[in-house]
Amino acid sequence: MYDLALDNLNNDLSIVGGGFVSVVSAQEVAQRVRTHLQRWFGEWFLNITLGVPYAEKLLGQKDKTLIELYLRKEIATIDGVEKIKTFNIVQDYAARAITAYIELTTTYGEDVAIPIEVTQ
pTM, whole model, 2 decimals? Predict the structure, then answer.
């Protein structure tokens, strides 16, 4: 697979030397997982049914198991994900934030680590 690379800090397109950067293989899968999990439900005006319902169901949720199950279900729908190896969630109830540390194996046979932080 092939995609344009996104900067990990601000999710803008990566440009080096005046040209776009591409990602392939396992790094492309990692980027796809990261962007999928960072898309809030209803955020994209062209299809408001896409996205993770953080505000509606997950932020402020006391049961980490429910959050993990929901996010695992989301990850399982993403092309290129073979299996989730580790999954750890840290919650900040006061800030209504979730940080997930995910390590997965891609269909390319490579492992990738993906940190995701979601704050309302």
Answer: 0.89
Place of tokens 């999954």: 87
Task: Say if residues 13 and 38 touch (Cβ distance below 8 Å).
Answer: no
Given this model, what pLDDT does residue 1 score? 67
- CA separation for the pair 120, 96 (Å, rounded): 6
Nearest to 114 by CA among 42, 22, 34: 34
Structure tokens at 4: 């344009």
Q: How many CA atoms lie within 13 A of 88 on its CB side?
A: 7
How many other CB atoms sit within 10 Å of the CB of residue 58? 20
Structure tokens at 23: 């990602």
Domain boundaries, the chain: 30-119
User: What is the total residue count of the chain?
Assistant: 120
Return the CATH fold of 30-119: Nuclear Transport Factor 2; Chain: A, (3.10.450)
Low-confidence ranges of the chain (pLDDT < 70): 1
Nearest to 77 by CA among 41, 112, 52, 44: 52
